[in-house]
Design goal:
Elements (H helix, E strand, L loop, with lengths): L19 H18 L1 H12 L9 E5 L5 H8 L3 E6 L2 H9 L5 E4 L12 E7 L8 H11 E12 L5 H8 L13 H8 L3 E13 L2 H10 L16 H10 L2 E2 L2 E14 L3
Helix pairs in contact: 1-4
Bound molecules: S-adenosylmethionine (SAM).
Amino acid sequence: MDLTVSDVDKNRIDKSRVDKQAIAGAFGKAAARYDAVAKLQQQTGEYLMKMVQSEDIGNRILDAGCGTGFFSKRWKQKGKRVIALDLAAGMLSHAKGLQAADYYLQGDIENLGLADNSVDVCFSNLAVQWCNELPRVLQEFHRVTRPGGLILFSTLAQGSLWELETAWKHIDDYRHINQFLPLQTIADACQPYRHQIRHQQYNQRYPQLLPLLNSLKGIGATHLHHGRQQGLMTRKRMSALSAAYPKNNGDYLLSYQIVFGVIYCDK
Ligand SMILES: C[S@@+](CC[C@H](N)C(=O)[O-])C[C@H]1O[C@@H](n2cnc3c(N)ncnc32)[C@H](O)[C@@H]1O
C-alpha cells in the first residue's frame, strides 16, 4: 500500500532534511533584487573562478545552483558554453532574461538530469550548503564531469552567522540559522577524490540590524529545514534581538566561514 504524506505522523518527518520547495520559492522570490545584495557571493565566486590557473580547461561549463546567472555570464564572457542549472524557476527565468547562459535547466544538484561525462567544468558557488548530502552532490558533480575535468565549489561551514545565532538564543528556543557542516565533514566528503580545499573567513559590518537581516533575506536564506519554526518579527522582538546582538564599536558584525574546493576528475 502506498502512503501519502498525510498518512505519516508529522512528528516522524525528518526535520533535519532541507525543504527544497521552500528553498526554490524563497530564492525565486528574491531573484529580482538578489544581485544588488549578494556581495559576498560575488566575492567568493570571483575567488573560485581564479582557483583555476589555466584557460585550457575545456569549453562546457555547468553552473550548478546558478541563481541569477551572475557567474554563468562571467564564464560566457570567457568564451565558454554554459549550462545554467537551478532549483528555483524564478532564478532561472531571471538568468534567461539576462541571457546569462546558453542552456537553462531546472533541476536538483543532488540528482542531476545530465549525462555522464557531459561537461568539462562543474562550477558551483555557494549552493551546495542547501543540500541534504554533500557526498551525494559531489558524486553527481563527479559523474557529469569528464575525465580530466574539474569541479569547483564553494560552501558555508559551521560557525557562519554565529553572531546572529547567539543573539537569537537570547530571544527564543527556535532554530533561526541554517546548520552548516563542520570543516572536517566537508574535507571528508572530498576525500574520495584528488582535491584541494581552502578555508577563509569573510566579515561583514552593518551600522544597524535591519540591513543585516535584509541582506540575509535578499539572498533567500530564510526558508530552511522542515520543522523550522520562527515567531513573527515584531518591533519588540527586533529591539530585543538588537540589544542581544554582539557588537564591535557599535557595529553589527556578521561572519561567514567559506570553504573553497577544487576536485580533479581523474577517472
Ligand atoms: C546563495 S545562491 C548562489 C547563486 C549563484 N551561484 C551565485 O553565486 O550568485 C544559491 C542558489 O542555489 C540554488 N539551489 C539551492 N539548492 C539547490 C539544489 N538542490 N539544486 C539546485 N539549485 C539549488 C538556489 O535556488 C539559489 O539560486
